[in-house]
Amino acid sequence: MPFDVAAVRADFPILSREVNGKPLVYLDSGASAQKPQVVIDAVTRAYGEEYANVHRGLHHLSNLATEKYEGVRATIARFLGASDENTIVLNSGTTEGINMVAYGWAMENLRAGDEIVLSVMEHHANIVPWHFLRERMGVKLVWVDVDARGDLDPQRVLDAVTERTKLIAVTQLSNVLGTVVDVKTICHAAREKGIATLVDGSQGAVHMPVDVEDIGCDFYPITGHKLYGPSGSGAIYVRAERMAEMRPFMGGGDMIREVHKDRVIYNAPPMMFEAGTPGIVQTIGFGVALEYLMGLGMENIAAHERAVRDYARDRLDGLNWLNVQGTSATKAAIFSFTLEGAAHAHDISTVLDKKGVAVRAGQHCTGPLMTHLGLTATCRASFAMYNTTEEVDALIEALELCHKLFA
User: Family assignment (predicted)?
Assistant: First the structure.
């Protein structure tokens, strides 16, 4: 079916509201996406009619909740192109997923002096857990810069590899520059060298079709609230061979088979990595969100977002007093910018909000990238499948007001 953005917008009740007397123009989906009615309904139904704890309960509600909760694992596997649903670990999002890799895999397989290769545009969620290993184990972090356009050359990543490299951890899509990284080339070359790869899919999985087995990565975390699902939901794909090298990083109920005074016997993966009562309702809602996306078609969504991106790029390029960061030819519909002069990103964001335009202002959890760019903060307009060219025009109008106020 052709992509009908008007029909999609009608599925999101919040998009019909006003802010400061103006129609809401929501351009902060890179931080967290809005939720379609089907997800809202699923969460309401799960709490109001179907709630119980999952696993081990023998009553009707527990069986129903377990069936719906566990069914999401297969949905995520289908969404990510994973042939085995047991390679999917359910969690609260990318941050937990990367920490699981740090504690469950890296702490077991790395030693002092071993190296982790990162790009300078990583989100803090894909930086701080590796700093933990640097502080506690003596692991070395090796940084690779982006070029003047914001592109990350796969060869530069591979050139940073030494005999001590044990992991390459890179984003698939920059949350600031919009840069799309050729992670497939990196991952396939790394596997030939026996080096593990983690691809941060927080943004990539939102804007393009994903096939983790084609990419060839070992770890691929995603976050539910960026994929139009509830906050507190997410998952990580772990290649079976790497999962066999891991130990559980958090202990509690569900991740064990037997507990004795002198020993424990862990559950089989992926349950081994899912301790405690999970985000049951959040995960059920996440599954509904992914079904909604697959119903629209990720290729259709990507095509619509490219059209909005191209229109936005043309309009923004016409503002010679606006400095847009990241000019990659294949970038996603994410635009981070500053205004010439002394206007701070927070001031710009405040003025835009008065016009009903919601953008993000700050460092966007990318301290090393901001240092590389020589900036302290930017505004970021991140477009999603429900945004339109008319909303691009609203952004431009609001930016022109900012220019008049701050020039």
Answer: Belongs to the class-V pyridoxal-phosphate-dependent aminotransferase family. Csd subfamily.
